[in-house]
Request: fold
Amino acid sequence: MVDGLRNILWELQLLLQLLLAIRSGRCDSPPVNPCIQIDPTVCHGKPVIRGTRVMVATILGVLGAGDTIETLLEDYPNLTREDVSAALEFASRLSEYQVSAYEAVA
Reply:
């Protein structure tokens, strides 16, 4: 339970930093492809393929485990090759995202 709460707090902190960076202009664009949906009412706000409940993490996990894209598409017939590419792009851009340190104004 405690580890789950830590993970949620960590993800919320990262999301808040991303939103603040976007709002302040320190980030050109969010690392989100139009195929990716982040909605707090869908899968607890985890990134999913738009219009589905298939999480980006699921796609990455399947591919990371060694399955092919063809196998993934057979197992998830509602996904397209474009959806898989969007998930990979999302992960790639998110792994490159950096938050610039800034001083708080009192």
About this structure: The mean pLDDT is 79. Residues 30-96 form a domain with the Arc Repressor Mutant, subunit A fold (CATH 1.10.10.10).
